[in-house]
Specification:
The chain has helices at about 5-20, 30, 45-55. It has about 60 residues and is mainly α. It has one domain. The chain is globular and about 30 Å long. About 10% of the residues are buried.
Length: about 60
């Protein structure tokens, strides 16, 4: 997802709230580190798989 960090955090929180998931499971800095070259891509597929499992499946 090509979103700035604030929009991505809001998007993730909305998904977690909608599906009663714990947002504390996500290490957000892996996807939006200070050095963008070190970022792990955050994808829609990751969100879908995690929603199906009802937990964050990555990190």
């Amino acid at each position: 997802m090509k979103l700035d960090p604030e929009d991505a955090a809001e998007c993730l929180q909305n998904v977690f709230d909608a599906f009663a998931m714990d947002s504390d499971q996500v290490t957000f800095s892996l996807y939006y580190p200070e050095n963008p070259r070190e970022a792990i891509p955050l994808t829609i597929e990751m969100l879908i798989e995690s929603v199906r499992a009802r937990i964050w499946c990555y990190d």
